[in-house]
User: Fold these one by one.
Assistant:
Number 1:
Amino acid sequence: MTTDDPRPPPRRRLSVALGSRELKGLFWQVLVVGIAVAVVVFLWSNTVTNLSARRITTGFAFLGREAGMPIADSLVAYNPRDTYLWAFVVGVANTLRVAVIGIVLATILGTLIGISRLSANWLLSRLAAVYVEVLRDIPLLLQLLFWYVLMQALPAARAAFRPIDGVFLSNRGLILPAIPIGRPQLWVLCTAVLGVAVFYGVRRWLIARQMRDGKPRPAWPFALGLIVVLPALVSVLLGVPWTIEWPELRGFNFVGGLTLAPEYFALLIALVTYTSAFIAEIVRSGIQSVPRGQWDAANALGLRRSFMLRQIVLPQAMRVIVPPMTSQYLNLTKNSSLAVAIGYQDVVSIANTTLNQTGQAIEAIALIMAVFLTISLGISFFMNWYNARIALVER
Amino acid sequence: MTAVTDMPDVPRAARRPQMGNPVLRWLRTNLFSSIPNGILSVVLLAVLAKGVIGFVQWGIANAVWLTPANDSSACRAARGLGACWAIIPEKYRFILFGTYPFDEQWRPALSVMLFIGLFYLSSRRALWRRELVYLWIAVLGLISVLMWGGVLGLSFVSQDRWGGLPVTLILATFGLAFGFPLGILVALGRRSNLPAIRSLSVVYVELIRGVPLVSLLFMASVMFPLFMPSGFNIDKLLRAQIAIILFAGAYLAEVIRGGLQAVPRGQYEAADALGLSYWRKNRLIVLPQAIRHVIPPLVNTFIAFFKDTSLVLIIGIFDLLTTAKTAIIDPAWQQFSVEVYIFVAAIYFVFCFAMSRYSRSLEAHSAHAS
């Protein structure tokens, strides 16, 4: 119809095209951007003047200089003669160490407490409710200081608590027996990881076949074979030694075993218990969001309770649970920066020391921001991928 | 088949008559409904009893409640056996009000009362009117006069000497009072169809939410002097307050944006059809509905700020947690920090618990209404 129209489209003059609405919009944008640019230029010029007055050169060249700061508890080899850059890497490793383990433990504990909240057992559900209410309503920093004070009040190494043989709890932290991981042990672990990956593929294949003919095929023999038997076989064939290293008290300190320093241990406990209270609420509301009819329908089909939970209720609850869980994981990671209050050297604490030693304030803060933005984006990326996988597929 | 036909045709409840002692019946349904449940209950009861008895022995039976001033010998004697609550009467003035001049401490105390009164009035549904904004301005102004003084015969107290609970309340309340309008503007900006304003809002929100508050506070305490012309310096408390306002603005903006998304399109279109301008449309039609939608999450965000103000400890501002930590530096009382932390935790808990109860009652109310 319109293509037959011989007339060219009406040409409006510029002043008409920019009607009052667009003009207003343009005005506001220019105004706001102008103010923002003016503020940034003002701050920037002040900063440049101030820095030159204090004889601080901007730029990241200081990262190559010798750091000279001691780091007590580090995952990777470090000594004070290393560079600032390496000190930062140690800090990032320390942050990740507490964040990753914290996220795993908080998820497990939070899920258990969330399920306990819904238990038919009155006592259990009340206790879980009190746990959630108390931990949520007290600042994390206060809880962290509290745990740290308790750690310091523990007896000295000589009089350490020994809850189980080989485990020591003293003011030196928590000392556990360890299995030293060398190259041969690493091979076995790699096999196990490979086994998990292959099992994942096998499971998809089994499900695809079940989709075609409707016959359920058990996946557990494959899991057992790929994840347990295969690595065990490799271990036996290569003759890998799996010795357990027991910690021993020598003089005033422990030798051997795995040591969780009191700062790390206090931070981990505080982060895990605090975040688990929030996760418990998320899990509870997720399970409660599954309509009763779904339980009733599963019951009517005569499904077993465990099957019902695994195949009917949890997949639906997960859709409600995963998005808020992502923000809890992000919170835990950001909260790990409270480490600076008790002297655990995470990335924020190391950046802060660097800032005091070199005066490179902008660079240090920029590095903190870069690290946390990267971690946040990483977690959101993973959780969004997972969320898309479990999201409702509608026809 | 026979099992089904044999079943008497009566409702289930009628077949199992509810007899016996109501207490026993309650125990049976709630604690001993099955064998594993019964075992669980017994184990939990045992653990609970052990915990409660241990706490009562430490916290009440063997505790030291009062000692002569500046004498912690009784507490030292009971160390390890009982709590030393005597540290609270000894130090409570410092914990609550910091280094505020001792004789003038009725002023911060009155300010705390005013804050609590303000929160209470703001929670009343019947008072959610325009006048509430004026009340906030008036009360916050009154609190400033009380804390600073210098007029009406009150002696001037510099903010370096403020401390304790009033500082915590000031940081949280002013953070909300200024962060809230900022959050509204940013939320509107993020939903605006002007690309420059939208991207600025997105950058602001994502940058602030992407980094920990600790690093923002460091920035406020270390970098702020670098940002300003030389010779221009503002107080540490105010710098921390600005950081908290910027932080609050970003989080509140996200909550308010959720509310804006819940307002049906028809409302916008109706406002446009009436020929209302952008600001009048938002002020009269959209925002009142949007904010009503998100009041419970707003209260939850406020609880989170209230707790997060404690982070100013890291940059050395004397809020409630910092005064508590400072109170136990005193060598005579150094070993009794657990008691002080429990005392301060109780104060934080009372405030946060009241707010979370309130948020839940609002949720129940709105669920009931819809």
Number 2:
Amino acid sequence: MSNHPGSTAKSVRVKAKWLALLWLVPFAVFFVVFQVAPLVWVTINSLNSPEGWGLANFSKVFSSRFYMQAIKHSLEIAFWSSLIGMAVALLGSYSLRQVDSRLRDFVMAFSNMTSNFSGVPLAFAFIILLGFNGALTLLLIKIGLIESFNLYSKNGLIVLYTYFQIPLGVLLLYPAFDALREDWRESAALLGAGTWAFWRYIGLPVLTPALLGTFVILLANALGAYATVYYLTTGNFNVLPIRIAGLVSGDISLDPNLASALSMILVGLMAVITVAHQLLLKRSYHVAR
Amino acid sequence: MSRAEAKPAALYHRTVVWLLFAILLLPLAGTLLYSLSTSWSASILPDGLTFKWYVALWGDARFLNAFGQSLLVCFGALALSVVLILPLLFVVHYHFPKLDGLMNVLILLPFAVPPVVSSVGLLQLYGSGPLAMTGTPWILVGCYFTIALPFMYRAITNNLQAINLPDLMDAAHLLGASTWKAAFLVVLPNLRKGLMVSLFLSFSFLFGEFVFANMLVGTRYETLQVYLNNMKNSSGHFNSALVISYFFFVLIFTWAANRLNKDKS
């Protein structure tokens, strides 16, 4: 079709435009089959139980100490690993901006690569390093910093999760420092503000939206994580993703409907966090756009 | 800031950056050392060094099989993604730019719904019936497409905006090219680098996918990650060699993406 000006050519072009929509059909089919349909199934069946349609699955979850513990563990691990991971990433990315470009590029590239070091291989590496007989555990005990370390506990998992939060935090926070101009620091210093005052009244408020956004993404990242904790504790540590998987692929007590209810709670938690983030963002006074 | 103050500050920043590097390096370095040691238990340093674990690993038929199957699934998923996403991007950005808003909402779904949640529905829907495919690599190819989608969509969108698609197409049309010809011979070559970068990076995270592979397929089509999980009770040194070999591949692909990215600017 050559594009001569004229009404026929124009109508051909309009027709071609609508025909082009046909190209979207294969994409839509695959997206529905592998993304939308499973989510719809989970949503509908979370309301289905042997007693019939209703909220029976949810009341079962909320009245069970076992499932409530899973939710609590998930939230605690996600919260602390996100907070510590973000703090490390914040200090790290600020310093990354201040060093010479060779060191910066090298460490940034390395950090991006380690963001793919997660899941089962990461859990394995941590067993070697920080397991009961791990090299680092033994070293830390020997120099008297710790008495013992249990990687397979809640605190152990927080350390492990923090590790995989750091590269993601650096990736998200590093560009945020663009908002903080270096001459502001000099101006503040001229007006008599010390380092502390600068960060308290200028630096952190300017970075707040980016920090909140990063925190939300890190929380979601940790809440949905499954492979690491599964490999580390062979599916024995009580967190939400482990419980969900256990109810559909375990050897005993299969209950896809209850798994659906737990899934909805997990997705719901993420939705609540995202909405809270939007509200906080609106209230924080420094919103550029 | 005077010079006397600047020096300790510079030293502080260098220290923080090196500390960050050390923290990130530690698990990898530990695993590397473990994979090279003859035996290492209940001591801070290993007893001796050897390559025998790598020799054993790369001579193990089950490992090579899992490795090949992982590659097949990842390449299959990436090929599917390109075939589905490129026309989508072209149609959205050239004909219906308003759909971009809708797409940006849709591609949030793979982020918002963790794989473990999708797996609940996938297992029930495709365990039997007309679309029975759990336990086969096909379901992984489909699921990996959804994982790669948000990333590839965003990366190539940025690229399309950079080359100014409508102007490029108008110019090609003016010179007598059909829409088809313009899309294939003008737009596609301009996207090649961005596409390669996003493919390399997608590969490096699909290669490490475990949740879908373990829950939907398991040992019936063992991928590398599932193999590593199933080898849990074998020698730690052997497994270390496996982890390092795996990460080496990821490293090559991320490095290639990095290089391509640098060439572009």
Number 3:
Amino acid sequence: MSHPPRHSSMLSISNNVQTAATPSEKPLPPTQLQATSQTPPGLRVPSNRKTIYDRHLNRTRNGELSRASFAFLFGEMVTYAQRRVTGIQDLERRLNEQGYPLGLRLLDLLFYRTTSSTSSSALSSSSTSASPPNRPLRILPLLHLIHGPLWRQLFNRSADALEHSISPDTPNEYMITDNDPLVNTYISVPKEMNQLSCAAFVAGIIEGVCDGCGFEAKVSAHNQPSELWPSRTIFLLRFGDSVMEREKVLERAGVK
Amino acid sequence: MPVYSLIIINKAGGLVYQREFQPGLRKLSTNDYLVLAGTFHGVHAITRSITPKIPNQNAVSVTSSTTQTPTPTTTAAAAAAASPSSTSVLSPSSTSIPTPTPTPTPLSTTSTTTPALPPSTSTPSNATYTYPIPNLPLSGLETLESDKFTLTCFQTLTGTKFLLFTDPQMANIEGIMKTVYELYADYVMKNPFYQLEMPVRCEAFERGVGGFLRARG
């Protein structure tokens, strides 16, 4: 009874989660798995045994991507998000959720690349003495990070405007304007859905970046077409109360 | 030298887009435009089927001495290479290709050595003629000229037809057509809210086409 029954080994080949879920059965060694099935489950490894994780993170730093393939991919993402939604709000929420994890991850990559560009040798020699990453503590540096480096990393240019809400009732609202968001370049929203902005995806990215920095925020995208810029979009950032409280404390303490 | 009007017809012959770029043109009703699109689609298909076939005279005289077998490889090699006048150049290379037929019988028929048919119709049995432009698949009506306007038709690989009504004096219609096609590929085909084969209602496409064609007019 040392060998598991045949059908269980078949199951473990077709679905790797199955073996993890049944710890009582002895899982087959990975070599045997590969021998029985031509396509091993999980991560596909190229012939030279180098995965995407073996590459240097800065390798694709200045890499260029096809705008058309991005447009098609994003179009499919919108189509996918559109399935089984109840309304425009729901669709925007889904797009936001697609962008959020991207923002969290991009933040790490952004810090890694900004520090390694200034002191790439120091990072490899000693990790402790390397210059501390420019992690923002206050709201304004965070907004500058989003407006400048993040936008440059994503779209190869800075955002077009950064504003603070002038209303005294909403001091926690900030606005970032993009005159021609890349995601909306080829998208024409039908008339009956004209509230929808597919840049909710980018809003999700921003939200992920803010949350990753420890600034709880809600970010939404709004169309603000002008004569010159028909697809001008405003990203509205609403920071949470805890963030605003901390901001006041830090201001008194004189932290920049 | 303006562009008067643009019509886009889908592969089933339905009108998906129609817009005028000059004021003062006589208006047609929507139904008339639909009929026009369907009629043009039919006429286009007819013109495609009545493309004249030219009997392949020179192929007989040039290649009467060569011996070949009617195999698909030779015709394919010949069709890929060049125009019908260059059959004599082809014969050494085609004899060097090992043919699948075990015993190549010496034949001197005209039908076997006629190359350069359009790929869609390259069967050895009816290879005694060629089309005006060899190596190009059959298309249909391309331009229609009158003293008031010129109609240019461009058919994409997927069967969508772009019809451009322009001033007879207008030059470089091909370039305009290419830009319109690019705008269509960008703002219509990359729009997730556009349903294929349905009427085009894309704001960005309207803007792009309007901006481009008005500037020409």
Number 4:
Amino acid sequence: MRLSVSHRTTYCYDAPIRLAVQSLRLTPSVYDGQKVIDWQIAVEGGQQGAGFRDGAGDWIESWSVRGPADHVTVTVGGTVETADLTGLLTGHREVVNPAVYLRETLATRADAALTDLARAVADDAHEPLERAHGLSGAVAEAIAYRPGATEAHTTAAEALALGEGVCQDHAHALIAAARVLGLPARYVSGYLFATEDGTPHEAAHAWAEVWIKALGWIGFDPANRCCPDDRYVRLGSGFDARDAAPIRGIAQGPGEESLDVEVAVLQAQQ
Amino acid sequence: MLSRTADNLFWIGRYMERAEMMARLLEVGGRIALLPSAGHGYRNEWESLLQASGTALGFAKTYGDPIQRNIESYLFFDRDNPSSVASCLERARENGRIVRTALTEQVWDALNTAFQEMRQLERQPRSELELGRLTEWTMRHAAQVRGAIDATLLRNDGYDFLGLGYRLERADNTARLIDVKYYVLLPRADYVGTGLDSYQWMTLLRALSAHRAFHWAYGGDVTAAKIADFLILNRQCPRSLLTSVSGAAAHLDHLASAYGRPTPAQEAAVSLRDEVAGLTVERIFEEGMHEFLARFIRQTGRIAAVVRDTYLSGEMR
Amino acid sequence: MTEACFNEMYDSGAVRSLYAALEGWTRSMPAELRQMKQAEAEALFRRIGITFAVYGEGGDPDRLIPFDMFPRVFSQTEWRRLERGIKQRARALNAFLVDVYGRGEIVRAGRIPAHLVYGNEAYEKAVVGFVPPKGVFSHIVGIDLVRTGPDEFFVLEDNCRTPSGVSYMLENREIMMRMFPALFRENRIEPVEAYPELLRRTLASVAPAKCDGDPTVAILTPGHFNSAYYEHSFLADLMGVELVEGPDLFVEGGLVWMRTTEGPKRLDVIYRRIDDAFLDPLCFRPDSMLGVPGLMDVYRSGGVSICSAPGAGVADDKAVYTYVPDMVRFYLGEEPILQNVPTWKCAEEDDLRYVLDHLPELVVKEVHGSGGYGMLVGPKSTTEQVENFRAKIEADPDNYIAQPTLALSTCPSFVAEGIAPRHVDLRPYCLVGETIELVQGGLTRVALTEGSLVVNSSQGGGVKDTWVLAE
């Protein structure tokens, strides 16, 4: 499928900033499931800095905006040719050892409930792949999709207790549960093409990947009860939402920051 | 050099000069208070000192009535008063510790010794500490630091930032001292020319360690015009407004040529220097002494702000 | 137990030739003169401003580390062996770091468990796949050594991040030379004063790919409230480089810049004295005010060098320590010259059982602890202390390792009653850049309390000048 993405993020400040520095993980991954036709990143009034591919295979690009400025706008967009690999991340070059992703973070710490959820799945399923599917399903059952129920800092355990959340909470819960079973797991950020008939949501999307020794990394999207296919554009990964954030930035200045995001993913005209 | 280093050096200069100013103010107050109380200005002269040092509000909050002993404590020892001698010496020393690499051993030693002795003074009973001893002690240490700077420091940009701090602070302080005398102590015109008037002027000169120099330079009767000329316009007087602002302009000229670029800070200092140099005592009295001094204090404040924006904030491109 | 230890001054009752001159020196020094000299030394230290704030204790921020004037002496032969051993270890530790942030051959070969490396808190994912200039992660390796006999040296721990204390090595020597010039005329003592220049050259030799001219080096300090600030400013001064704080720096255009009075000045090599977690709020702790936003991106793309490299801490972890001799064999194909202290890992069941059975005889340490905190010295502890510690170990065995109580060597030291043997250790500072350098000397720490084995300055230890005699 050929998808076109346009994504604009604007940070506004109520007092002028001195300097803003951003580290952007906003370039589609290079793997067998997607091919970039064209892609641009621009930061209004900004200067492009270092760019490099990190150990997890993500392309990182830094930008800085010299003040005084009252807003910073990051615009990304382009066209990506995607293929359905049923969640497999084949042809992706990375150096990080999967064992690194057994590390827990604040957001993905498994409490007793998450441990119980994982153990219950393990009782019925014995193969790692089967378990990963089981966990994804169990998380989808346990956390109903409801925007606004949680916030950026909500942890996996809190979302499970609440029984509601968004894609970020689903991914965190799946990661936490997978690690309980000794399966390395990580957070993936990207885009999702929403078809007209309406089921999928959230054009700026997140899901999880679980490491299955025989197959490598495999994506699971509990929010949509599926594995990522050709409607998905993968940007990058991390331990959790914070670590995998597409934009990490700091503005130096006394002002308060407010945020505005617009994302659209469309099927490109051939 | 790092902007932060320049900033620390600038503030060493300012704090050391300010510590000295506080000691001089205390001396003025102490001497004027020796006069019989009849015939004083309409305000308590101690209170006027607090006004001059810009600390009246803080003092009133802590101590209430301006009593000499309390004022001494407040202006000399009180760490809650950011302008007290103790606060200034401590900050000067802390700034020095931060930029040890930009100072010579002698300068650091002088700063550190003043601070260590200060801590000893603080441990002594106040009843053993005469005001005269405290002010003399401060002047001595201030002189040691200045001497070490003069004798040992490389004449590089760091020296200029230190000197700039000293000169701008001194310009401001001398202006405030004159203002105390002129505006606060003697508000009524019919005192002008009386014995009290000239006693106050002489006390002021004495506090600036300039009473003998004044006589050498002018001779004859002490008049307000002669003293104003001496403290404002005389290039030979080391603490006059013209000398201070010329010094600041010279440091900024030096920086601009060393860095190979003129700056708005240099421009502002040169224009103030030229303006003061072109003045006469008559013109100043015409404008009104207090009005002139208030304007001058504002202008030096503006130069300090431009220096900060230009060199010290790290925003130079 | 002090009597049973090797006293470095004697050999079967006779004074070793190394110490012969010092024996005469102490004899010729009456108690009053010694006290006068001691006071003089203290006044010098205080005037220079070398003081030390003890972590987490409050108290006098201007406290001095006690300086013991009695020097410790090594012969050329002794030193040469130590030097070979230290350099070998520094090479192996760096090879390990390059490996585990790359292909991880040593893990694949099964020589070290994967979880000790990849599950280690000090292992930084952000560094994976990056090889720093010249393949060096740890540019200043501080190796803590103890001695139990004429030829028995053991490595107590490795410090691959930012070992401190080198200013004491330099100042101790400076003060000894000022106070006792005759000693230095009579003994041929190898100088240590080249250290700052060697350090500067080491740092310059690992300039990043994008640096085309003479590299600009700076020391990054957490600030003047830090207890080691004196050392930071001392080294900056002796190297002739800027001492910067995080807010003095910013990134732009893929490079790091210093804010100066003449505008931005490019910075190529950062000798950082702040922890990984505080380096870059975009990459590590987002609340860090000490670091530089965007620094890691510049680092990864070859715009700046950071010494030691972020992530170097995975090599000096106390659990990884036990594998260092294996690293020497694996990467260098050599037998280790310096031995480890035998260590039981409480993470392993058999070891744990042994440790719990022999607690009163052992020294137990936290895997991530430092500064002598959170440790148990079994033979010096009360039953109650031992039992309290037992509970801690049982609650979290992975967090502890244990070692036998070594009969640490002693060295004569000046104490109130005169001269008495006190336990010592040694920290040499090995510099790793284009070449590997080691000055002939180091920091000797001494436990000034009789019988005490804890030499940490944070627990009342003192320091000594350390001599290596010329041939």
